[in-house]
Specification:
about 200 residues; mainly alpha; 2 domains; about 75% helix
């Protein structure tokens, strides 16, 4: 039983006790007919109190059931556009996490350093998937811009990867914001910037 229910029960009991004292005092002054009417009124009041008690018990039982077996809250509906953006963001975060770092390239055997290393080709393929996703769904352009900006500012990424990301970031920024992305020049070396211009 909850605290408000207990308080109601105590208050009802006090009212009944107080009423009982007045009842016996008044009973001595009443005629037999008035006593019969009073008795009937008391009987009806007891029946109503019993009904209220049963209602309280029923409410308490419902409350217990609800706590023991709660109905799960309905899951919010996700639109197809929001789902596509979420999937894209998850994929691009995976690309960032899997991207080869400069230290990975330094550890490659000499046979791998002639030409384009395999890890760079794989990274380029992942960037190709990102570009393909964006070309098929223009709603992905804003999160794609965030991805390309993050990629181009990543100091431990290979120069070729950063240059490709910077090239795409500059193009998307111009398209979405009708201006030039004023990136921090100290974060992107001249070599990356020059290479991005050639793409």
């Amino acid at each position: 039983m909850t605290k408000p229910q207990i308080r109601m029960m105590i208050l009802a009991a006090l009212i009944l006790i107080g009423g009982g004292l007045f009842y016996f005092t008044d009973l001595a002054r009443m005629s037999p007919m008035e006593r019969a009417e009073e008795k009937e009124a008391r009987s009806q009041l007891r029946a109503e109190t019993k009904d209220e008690g049963e209602q309280l018990k029923e409410i308490a039982d419902i409350e217990k059931q609800t706590k023991a077996d709660p109905t799960p809250a309905p899951e919010p509906k996700v639109s197809a556009a929001d789902a596509a953006i979420l999937e894209f963001k998850t994929y691009t975060q995976g690309v960032i996490n899997e991207m080869p770092r400069l230290e990975d390239l330094r550890e490659l055997p000499a046979s791998e350093t002639h030409g384009t290393p395999k890890v760079i080709r794989e990274a380029a393929a992942q960037l190709g998937v990102v570009a393909d996703m964006v070309s098929k769904n223009s709603a992905l352009k804003p999160p794609a811009l965030e991805f390309y900006q993050k990629c181009s500012l990543q100091g431990d990424f290979p120069t070729s990867v950063r240059a490709l990301c910077l090239n795409r970031a500059l193009r998307l920024y111009a398209e979405l914001h009708k201006g030039v992305w004023e990136f921090d020049r100290t974060q992107i070396p001249a070599q990356v910037l020059e290479l991005s211009k050639r793409l």
